[in-house]
Amino acid sequence: MTDTPLIELRGLAKSFGPVHVLHDIDFSAYRGEVTALVGDNGAGKSTLVKCIGGTHAIDAGEVLFDGVPVQIGTPRDAAALGIEIVYQDLALCDNLDIVQNMFLGREKKHGIVLDEYGMEELAGTTLAGLSVRTVTSVRQKVASLSGGQRQTVAIAKAVLWNSKVVILDEPTAALGVAQTQQVLELVRRLADKGLAVVLISHNMNDVFAVSDRIAALYLGRMAAQVRTADVTHSQVVELITAGRSGSLGIGVRA
After folding, report:
1. CA dist., res. 79 & res. 236, Å (int)
2. Which of 40, 59, 178, 245 is least surrounded by Cβ atoms within 10 Å, i.e. has the fewest?
3. In terms of CATH, what superfamily is 7-82+164-251?
4. Alpha-helical runs (H) found in 27-142
5. Between the CA atoms of 229, 240, 244 and 46, what dihedral angle is there, to the nearest 10 degrees?
């Protein structure tokens, strides 16, 4: 474990016209850890993630990757660094099978011919490497998969490309208890493999079950970034709803 964050934001700001969405944001995520990004609706979580992913250009501040300042102007820039984002809609095609979804837009070829065997083997290896046992065949159509299996495929697709940072947007939002547990175990395995995982979630039980650190946004400002072991559920809820915690003595300045 290193003390240098794999990805770090310093003083990040973002506005849309006269609307200031993010103000002077500091944020860090470390390799081998799960950092939960929490906040109420409208706190700025989605905008922050889209800035990290290159969808939105930042107005001020800097981004460091493994301690080195970088420019992320497009999603392609983010992908080149090893940043992958699994959005809530998963961006999977129901009419395609698992292999086709995992390589969509990045197909392996021998000349002009698709390398079907190579893609199938790599998809299977990736799922096996994540200890995924709920998928019986990589040639299953995504339409036939459960919500938990779809989430698993989307995460496997994200880590297929030598990812270093994986950002998961509400991965358990539409899942039942058993499927939620499977996805949380997968999230933990990603961190254990050395990736920096950012988990966006409204579910405090999930946050405390799997995260190492918690970053709480409040009205576009970072209220606190703390180690999960050092806070309680109620203190995190206080940071989310009020922007500060009296018992912790931290929060957004009034």
Report:
1. 31
2. 178
3. P-loop containing nucleotide triphosphate hydrolases (3.40.50.300)
4. 45-52, 75-81, 98-102, 116-129
5. 100
Whole-number Å distance between alpha carbons of 202 and 192? 23
pLDDT digits (tens, 9 = 90+) for 2-36: 689 999 999 999 999 999 999 999 999 999 999 99
d(CA 93, CA 91): 7
Cα 42 to Cα 134: distance, rounded to the nearest angstrom: 35
Which three-class secondary structure string do you get for 188-254? HHHHHCCCEEEEECCCHHHHHHHCCEEEEEECCEEEEEEEHHHCCHHHHHHHHHHCEECCCCEECCC
- Convert the pLDDT of each residue in 149-193 to its tens digit: 898 899 999 888 889 999 999 888 878 888 889 889 999 999 999
Q: 13, 22 in Cβ contact below 8 A? A: yes
pLDDT digits over 231-251, tens only? Answer: 999 999 999 999 988 788 887
